[in-house]
Specification:
The protein is globular. It is α+β, with helices and mostly antiparallel strands. The protein has three domains: 131 residues, Glutaredoxin; 98 residues, no CATH class; 115 residues, no CATH class. The longest helix is centred in the first third of the chain and has 22 residues.
């Protein structure tokens, strides 16, 4: 049975003649996928880069209960909606995973808001889970985890997951107030067929909110129990006894889950958004430094990016749109008392990106974007706190 994600925004194209020829698809092997696509140029390069980083994020976040990818996964990415539908994509979707043939499919572009990548990150998790987790995941776990990764922020050298978009938080709180969500036990017992028959945005929100709570609620208190639960399912145990042995009563879970979301402030994951921007800016700085470019300030590096004079080795390529959005995000966060600065290097010390977030009582939190170089190429890019005193390549 196909797993499909409900489209929040999708402008359907006008009907296309049945005589129209599909564009030829070319295979491109990547570390974890074989991409079948008619994309070319920078669009293709972005797809290859994103899919590699995406698989690495799936593995990093599930390594305590999932296996490894032992064979490359098939991914079909179409530039035209009709080609996607002609290949079997379900009407009303922009992407889907079909476990019957292990095939991930998506439309490359349905607008300028980046939504297709949310779909691909979501559906890609279904494919990953099918390949390496095992067992029969409850539908709320499968869809909730897929949405968790769907919300992930791409930084060029990785992803930042666990973010809570303010608009989605508002929707969660409103749904709780209006009693639109199912009782937890009923949600846990929801059958796969019933989920697909309804295709309800409310169900996606509830499943995501449950997984988000298990991953991050009460300072990560439930992470160990969630890992135990997922391991038991992977060993073939039915989810009900696996849940009880890991968490206990669903009733107790419901009260804590509701309280967590009710009390969550609007910018509860501002630090994660700041971390993602810091990581992206650091990825840009690392590439420029590898090309022996030096900047006195973040504004100077941004100016070079806008002029198109920023030097980046083709082997360490980044999408121009990602670079531009990182500088835009940095500017927009000033309104929330989050600032970014480039601290030049000295001697053998490499330059760094420093993000400062003003605290509510005068205290400030600092994130520092660090990188290493390896043979003139970009090595690891990390975000730490506080500033490391002697950062070396």
């Amino acid at each position: 049975m196909r797993i499909k994600i409900l489209l929040i925004v999708l402008l359907m194209a006008a009907p296309v003649s049945a005589q129209r020829q599909a564009r030829p698809m070319t295979e491109y092997p990547t570390p974890y996928y074989i991409i079948h696509t008619d994309l070319t140029g920078d669009q293709l390069r972005e797809a290859e880069l994103r899919m590699t980083r995406m698989a690495e994020e799936y593995h990093a976040r599930t390594r305590q209960f999932a296996g490894d990818i032992h064979s490359k996964l098939p991914f079909f990415l179409f530039t035209r909606e009709q080609d996607y539908y002609d290949a079997g994509g379900a009407t009303g979707t922009a992407g889907e995973f079909d476990p019957a043939n292990n095939r991930l499919m998506a439309i490359a572009d349905i607008g300028a808001d980046g939504y297709p990548w949310h779909v691909i990150q979501h559906e890609g998790f279904h494919q990953f889970a099918h390949a390496v987790i095992g067992g029969e995941l409850p539908i709320w776990v499968n869809e909730g985890m897929a949405e968790y990764f769907g919300e992930g922020l791409f930084t060029g050298d990785g992803f930042v997951t666990g973010v809570v978009p303010p608009e989605r938080l508002a929707r969660i709180k409103q749904a709780m107030e209006d009693k639109q969500f199912r009782p937890i036990r009923e949600m846990m017992l929801l059958a796969h067929k019933d989920w697909n028959d309804e295709m309800s945005l409310t169900n996606y929100d509830q499943a995501w909110s449950m997984v988000q709570f298990l991953a991050h609620g009460e300072n990560g208190k439930y992470q160990g129990a969630f890992v135990s639960f997922m391991r038991a399912i992977g060993r073939g145990q039915q989810w009900t006894p696996a849940w009880i042995s890991s968490f206990g009563s669903a009733e107790g879970f419901q009260e804590k889950w509701q309280a967590y979301w009710r009390d969550l402030p609007e910018d509860s994951t501002l630090d994660l958004y700041a971390r993602a921007t810091t990581a992206t800016l650091t990825s840009v700085l690392a590439r420029a430094t590898a090309q022996r470019e030096k900047f006195a300030s973040l504004e100077e590096m941004e100016s070079a990016a806008k002029k198109g004079t920023l030097k980046i080795d083709s082997r360490d390529w980044l999408p121009a749109s990602l670079i531009a959005s990182a500088f835009a995000d940095a500017a927009n966060m000033k309104a929330k008392n989050v600032t970014f600065a480039l601290v030049p290097g000295a001697g053998t010390r490499l330059p760094v990106i420093v993000c400062t977030m003003a605290g509510g009582k005068g205290a400030a939190k600092t994130l520092t974007g660090l990188f290493k170089l390896n043979g003139g190429r970009v090595g690891a890019v990390t975000v730490d706190m506080p500033l490391a005193p002697n950062t070396r390549g």
